[in-house]
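To whoever picks this up:

The parser on our side crashed when reading a file containing two proteins. I've narrowed it down to the boundary between the first structure block and the second sequence. Both blocks are reproduced below exactly, byte for byte. First block:
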Amino acid sequence: MAERITEGAVPKHEQLRRILLELATGHMQPGAAIPSERQLIAEYGVSRITVREALGQLVNEGYLTRVRGKGTFVAHRPVQSTLHLASFTEEMRALGHVPTTVVLVREEAVPPTDTVAALHVDEGATAFHVKRLRLADGVPVSIDDAWFVRDLMPGLLDHDLSRSIYSLVADRYDTPIDRAQQTVAADPASDDVATLLGTRTGSPVLVFDRVSFSGDRAVEHTRSWYRSDRYRVQMEVRASEPRAVGRT
């Protein structure tokens, strides 16, 4: 039986908003359809204006999403990560998500020019190329296109690459990745990236370009594409030195 919405100090649209928020976050999966405006009007005995106000607030807050001609759906809540060095598998588990990986490419090949420069390998020499689709709770979050120095990790491609490669290279090859240099940019998704991430061509994606080191040796060069609506980066910034607050 529907929860009652009554006249009182709390506006009806706010009462309905709370009901729908609990429904969307506690009882429905991302992508599930919210009842239609007509159903909500009949079930809760409120006006169309009240329904639209409640739905509109939840859309603006990111809990729901509208699809023209189809209806209103529970939105995919973005994974929020602090900016730190960790494998995708470790990071997702720490955030309470279930990580899975689909290995798209595993090969020994000659890397592109920017990777040759980043890893300081000889031109024409081969490296290990691993491209993977990463998912959290079964939902595509990123594509990782990585190159690894071959001489430091013989037989790398023979292992289970759906698990954490960072843990593998640390445990198996005694090559722990302990720091990285990384840049982040926003780009429109290309056709192939959009297809793998389940979004539209041209939709905004975050592009991470990372060179990872073990000690002083560059061992990995990775380019990653993240859906900007499913992944956010949180960071804390501080002044390099304490500074007195005053007027100028």
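<<boundary where parser fails>>
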Amino acid sequence: MSPINRRRLLTGTALAAVAATAPRAAWADPHSRSAQSTDTQEAGVRDIVIQNAADGFAGVNALGQNGTTGGAGGQAVTVTTAAALADYVGRKEPYVISVSGRIQVDDMLTVVANKTIIGIGSTSEITGGGLQLGSTTRPGNNVIIRNLRFTDASDDSISVTNSAHHVWIDHCDLSRGYDGLLDVKRQSDYVTVSWNHFHDHSKTALLGHSDTYTLDRGKLRVTYHHNFFDGTAQRHPRVRFAEPVHVYNNYYGGTSLYGVASTMDAGVVVEGNYFENVAHPILSGYDKSGPGRVVERNNVYVNSGTPETLGTVVEPRTYYAYALDSPADVKALVTQGAGVGRI
């Protein structure tokens, strides 16, 4: 059975009722004492199976957190204004926050721990600003962001920062931001970025604050899978210090500068992706940043350049299990399933 036939899309009321809150701790950090596993929940019917719980690094038991559950168990609310959104994402209690329609914000809203933020249908949007997970005094841990469109942010569209951990960003559409579309930095950890559509932008997904911010070493464990990098220029991701970073089953279409860049002794595994019209699909080192280590395997390169590899990398399977879709199917699978309105 093909990967496309194996997968299904959630539709209708299943979106708000199931997709945001199902807890999962399916694969445990080998260093965690609370290692355990639970089954993934599934619901709905159509074409492509959609995760209803965090996988990859966001699903790992670590740092006292059993996977990523967001606002599960908290009050469910629906917001239609910037004031209401800012209020609920900043409250200390867990919340499942449904976003209805287009919300104009003026800056980045700080999201604190134990929140699920999910768009209703295919028209929910945050524009003019973005979401910052945590501050220096209030952590942004255990956060889920799904099915939201982000446009025209005055800074980053989504910033995972200030030691935030256990974050799942899934089935979003991100474009036309001022700086990064989705940056992970400043000692954040255990993050999964899945099934998102990135387009109409240059600086897409930074991982690691700067060449001099060495506190990121030993952190920034992030999984990127089944994302559609649609004509974006660079940073898919650009990585500093982190290991391991897992980049698998993504579709890169018409990337103008480069696909993945591993720098500053980062360790990145790049596998099962589909690169099309990408002159520099994988780099070790970039600009003034020193080389990073890269393991490359089972990727498809169509009208694309030769990948750069270097050294060895800690395997993601030492943290979690995963099923790799055939790279030949990734283009069709991702263009059909990534983005908003598809869960």
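After patching the parser it read the second block fine. The radius of gyration is 18 Å. Residues 82-89 form the longest helix (8 residues).
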